[in-house]
Design goal:
Blueprint (H helix, E strand, L loop, with lengths): L5 H13 L3 E5 L18 E2 L2 E2 H4 L2 H6 L1 H17 L4 H12 L3 E5 L5 H4 L7 E3 L2 E8 L7 E2 L59 E5 L8 H14 L4 E5 L10 H8 L3 E6 L15 E4 L2 H8 L2
Parallel strand pairs: 1-4, 1-9, 4-5, 9-10, 10-11
Antiparallel strand pairs: 2-3, 6-7, 6-8
The structure holds ligand BJW and zinc ion.
């Protein structure tokens, strides 16, 4: 059953249809209904740790084992998850509409798996499936590393006391995001090591706080924006719009003439909702709303 008010839907789609330069800014809420937790609010805790606090270079240098356990778990969950109807609707729009570009803060790989063309999908915060050397002087990096777990020591332990379990395949994985579940001991030598310099630890190819976004991505976006210097529409989906420079694209688009449509489950999540007054606010689950409004 559709949940978008018909009048809003009509005015939005009229604007969408006459728009030729369109951006979508994606955040964790897009993948929430695929079962992947968001960063802020409910689900933002991993064991006793604030997910945002683990996404920093200092967390990695302090406790690389803990940070790898967090990311290895996220890689595993993302591989189990399936793209939802919103990922597919965006991929379809990207194929159908020239002049459409998606800026995604998500690292879960669900947009690529939904068939979103890579040429119009800019991954602002990298990918869980990119891996690179953490040594400043080594430039080793890999893309599309789907090995799960990336090293044997990061295998998620299973509940061996479960009497219904007869083989390793059937064994029930423990939920290591729950702090009541004991984490296996990890030695530094068991963590993924750089095959190039053989010295540095590998790290996830995501963008942590205080780190630059990938230069090539920023340049591609700049080039797209300066191509015509006008933007007709930006669709902001499932993000709290608190993290910069990503959130800054909303104001930038508006300064180039764009109208702003926000899809968010929480009308009260400032600034996700507050700063976009006057345009469209579609309240609800992105997985339901996005396919409705992009139809
Ligand atoms: C639903 C839903 C459903 C739920 N349907 N909706 C300007 C001002 C102030 C500070 C800065 C600034 N410029 C830069 C900074 C510093 C910093 C920053 O922004 N800090 C702020 C927090 C204040 N930025 C940086 O450090 C960035 N780098 C940088 O600026 O480099 C230049 C530089 C370098 C050195 C010195 C100086 C400058 C890098 C930022 C990297 C962010 N990385 C992370 C981790 C990625 C890896 C990982 O995944 O682990 O990216 S943090 C985390 O937040 C992740 C996300 O992509 C990002 C955004 O989160 P998102 O997606 O919005 O998720 P939530 O949870 O916040 O929101 C979910 C939303 O969905 C909510 O609104 C829900 O209501 C909604 N929702 N279910 C629809 N079903
Ligand atoms: Zn290296």
């Amino acid at each position: 059953r559709p949940i978008v008010p018909p009048a809003d839907l009509e005015s939005f789609q009229a604007h969408l249809n006459r728009s030729t330069r369109i951006l979508a800014l994606l955040g964790a809420g897009l993948s929430a209904s695929s079962g992947l937790p968001t960063f802020r609010g409910a689900g933002g805790l991993w064991r006793t740790h604030d997910a945002v606090q683990l996404a920093t270079p200092s967390a990695f240098s302090r406790d690389p084992g803990l940070v790898w356990q967090f990311y290895s778990y996220r890689r595993h969950m993302a591989l189990q998850a399936k793209p939802n109807p919103a990922h597919y609707a965006l991929a379809e729009l990207a194929k159908r509409k020239e002049g459409f570009m998606t800026l995604s803060q998500n690292v879960d790989g669900l947009s690529p798996r939904a068939g979103h063309p890579a040429s119009t999908l800019k991954l602002l915060h990298g990918s869980l499936f990119d891996v690179k050397c953490s040594d400043f002087f080594c430039s080793y990096s890999e893309t599309a590393n789907y090995t799960d777990p990336i090293v044997p020591a990061l295998q998620i332990p299973t509940d061996e006391s479960d009497p219904t379990t007869t083989s390793a395949l059937q064994a029930r994985e423990l939920d290591i995001s729950d702090s009541n579940v004991l984490l296996p001991e990890l030695a530094i030598r068991d963590l993924p090591r750089c095959p190039n310099c053989k010295k540095g630890l590998l790290r996830p190819g995501v963008v942590w706080f205080g780190e630059m976004l990938p230069t090539a991505v920023l340049n591609d976006i700049d080039r797209w924006i300066t191509e015509s210097n006008t933007i007709d529409l930006i669709i902001v989906i499932g993000t709290s719009a608190r993290v910069y420079p990503a959130a800054g694209y909303v104001d930038l688009a508006r300064s180039k003439g764009a109208r702003v449509a926000v899809v968010n489950v929480d009308r009260d999540d400032e600034p996700a909702s507050g700063m976009y007054q006057g345009d469209w606010f579609f309240e609800g689950d992105a997985a339901q709303i996005v396919p409705e409004i992009l139809k």
